[in-house]
Amino acid sequence: MRHRGYRLTSYGHAANSLGGWMDEVTRGWLIYQLTDSVLQLGLIRGIQAIPLFFLAPVAGSVADRYSRKGQLIIAQGVNALIFAITALLVVTDLIRPWHLYVTAFLVASSQVFQQPSRGALISDMVPQALITNAIGIYAIIFNISRSLGPAIAGAVIVLAGTGSAFWLQALLLGAATVWTMAIPEPKAAKPAPGAPARVSFVTSIVEGWRFSWKNETVRAGLTCTMLASLLIAPFTALLPVFARDLLHVGASGQGLLLTAMGGGALVSAALIASAGHRLPRGMVMLVSTMVYGLTIIAFAASQWFALSLALMALVGLCHVHSNGLIMTIIQTYTPKELRGRTMSIFMMNQVLVTLGAMLFGALADGLGPRLAVGAMGAIGFAAIAAMYVGMPWAKKIR
Questions:
Q1: What is the set of domains in the chain, with CATH numbers?
Q2: 3-class state of residue 174 by DSSP
Q3: What long-range pairs does 359-365 form, CB within 8 A, spacing at least 24?
Q4: Cβ within 8 Å of residue 236, ≥6 positions away
């Protein structure tokens, strides 16, 4: 935090994350209030996955071709404007469901352009030896925001209405934009020797994918996060079923399960931030992800709420310990001029989480939720174990 650029980046990240997590509650509450439709409650989230799938490669290429700081300023400023327009529509009683769909798509599109630029910018702001610590703090901010954002949104909606919640989101994104504008412009990356001065976007995107495949270390990190995102992490989509029908603890119990997961994630992020490059990152990445798979098997079998809470805390610890370390591995072993593109590939794991949630739901419909989660946990564990054996260099990543 002694590095001014990183400090300002962290302030912007905190404000942006709070606003984003508030929107998870505010937008969902409003669409349900307007339509009384559970289907539309799901669709408003599903539509936000579309820009991620189609625009992530473009966003990564833009982050490597142009100013990452400028890209972040524009994307956050656009989000602030969208939230302000939504707030105005709400307080004037002009809001309609289609407004929420359009603005959800636009917000998701601008967020796609934020993530690779912010991720790459973090590495630009600190020395190489502090990247792991910096990303650990990044994860701490994210997980604190994940806990506080929805709670703040709920309180504001109760006390002042949905429109006020959107106004606060606009204010937070505006503050994030101002802090980002104060960040010192990092030095531009030097082009690789013999590289053309400018290539097409398609060629630029292909270069990122080619590098990610050819570099063994980056490939190992991406493989691990993609497997976990498809086969293990989506089990949280079934938490309402476990809370209501299996553990019989209701909505408040589901909230406690998520809080326990957030607590474990926060501890994990703090460990990463403090340990830094001293960690054997490859080994921790693989072992944490294997334990992640085993833990959700145990969660599926648990009959006791107290045990389930403890297992959810371990899930949170394993998730961030593997995911956060993978992010540091990718950034550490990627040249500066390619970081935006590799980060855009990394963030596409959210598409796999969405697909995995659909897979978990289909299996639960046929096999029951316990067997579905247990089976997917076992498959996820086996996949990472196969990676442990088949990619011996991954264990040696420092």
A1: 4-181 (1.20.1250.20), 207-396 (1.20.1250.20)
A2: helix
A3: 359/230, 359/234, 360/234, 360/235, 360/237, 360/238, 361/237, 361/238, 364/238, 364/241
A4: 258, 261
Spatial CA neighbour of 132 closest among 4, 268, 313: 268
Tell me the three state secondary structure of residue 193.
coil
Which of 242, 228, 240, 232 lies closest to 308 in space, CA to CA? 242
User: In the numeric block, which tokens belong to residue 100?
Assistant: 């929420």
According to DSSP, residue 195 is labeled -
Please identify which residue in the block is written with the tokens 């992800």.
289
Q: What is the largest CA-CA distance in the chain?
A: 64
Number of Cβ atoms within 10 Å of the Cβ of 77: 18
pLDDT per position as a tens digit, 8-61: 988 998 999 889 878 877 887 787 788 876 566 657 766 777 887 777 777 777
Across 300-337, b (16+ Cβ under 10 Å) vs e yields: bebeebeebbbbbbbbbbbbbbbbbbbbbbbbbbbebb
186 conformational bin, left if phi > 0, alpha if psi -120 to 50, beta if neither: beta
- C-alpha pair distances (Å), 167 with each of 27, 86, 107, 204, 340: 13, 8, 15, 38, 31
Looking at residue 149, the DSSP 8-state letter turns out to be H
CA–CA separation, 260 and 226 (whole Å): 24
Expressed in angstroms, the distance from the first to the final Cα of the chain is 23
The reported pTM is: 0.70
